[in-house]
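To: structure subgroup
Subject: Chain for Friday's discussion

All,

I'm putting the inputs and outputs inline so they're searchable in the archive.
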Amino acid sequence: MCRKLVFAATMSILAQSLAHADAVIKPAFLGEIVLPSGLMISGIEFGGISGLDYDAETEVFYAISDDRSEKAPARFYRLKLLIEEDGVKGADIISSHVLQGEDGAPFAPKTIDPEAIRFDGTRQSVFWSSERDAAGNPALYEARADGAFKRSFTIPGAYLPDAAGERGIRNNLAFEGLALSVDGKTAWVATENALAQDGPKATPEAGSLSRILGFDVESGEPVAEYVYETGPIHRKSDTEPYYNDNGLTEILEIDAGRFLAVERSFALGAGNEINLYLVETAGASDILGAERIADLDVDVATLRKTHVLTIGEGDFGLDVDNIEAITEGPEVGGKQTLVMASDNNFNPNGQFTQFVVFTLEPGLN
């Protein structure tokens, strides 16, 4: 059985509507639920939700924490959201599952940095990504539904950082995004910003050349690779130490060759801006195996992006936080839902875990 057939069929209809040049996917805000920082579940702090996925068969969400095994062993949660036609009514955290390494033990502190998760009901597996291990390398894993190790994927050398910082992923800007193809045959990982050899990080003046890399699920081999250009940072910071950034934080395949992509921009003192895009591989250059984008002999066509939604501070009445996760949700009132979640960074000073729900339908610009 293909992965998430109901969602794929619904989103395929929406995607086909985009054949018209002036057609877009129109999200309509449905509601949100907020869980406070410091919430304790069985003596362990809940938070750091950086990845989210939905299993329509069991109506359960899978949420991964980016705790680097410091507050508790690296883990993911199974939870339910009560989503109704008039809003989001509640959240129920069902269970917590420790992620295990190849040795069958939990990851030691600071040896892993979980960022994204996808559940495959056919394989009864979770796929999850890490931005860095003890050596600073990114990783992609398959685990059993209880968190037990199944395998790790071999990451191409271009992504592995060297000692000089001239090659590979940048610290904290690696495999932030993860998607499974709707047919379950491909696992896609996305870097938040450019590899060191591909160009600079995003600035208020320019975006960054992220990569999206696809692995064949059966063989574990890379099968496709594309360049995704992020937008610039939405504004400069006005507060010391003047930190700001923008990056690709999640991808979700909605139809063959089409993704929804989330960019999260932050400026200290100004807050967050979240942008959602429809991304298409058609017409984009496949750079599979490229060590450095600039060394390719052809002009590289980046992935085509169509703007779908912006959530700024105060939009929809939201105090929008650090949105890093996106997944389909249940159908409500005959409409497909889309659920976003925020990573609160375990920060009690103004941050929180936020689940934001939209309904989706085709519309015109």
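Points worth raising on Friday:
Residues 17-23 have pLDDT under 50 and may be disordered.
The radius of gyration is 19 Å.

D.
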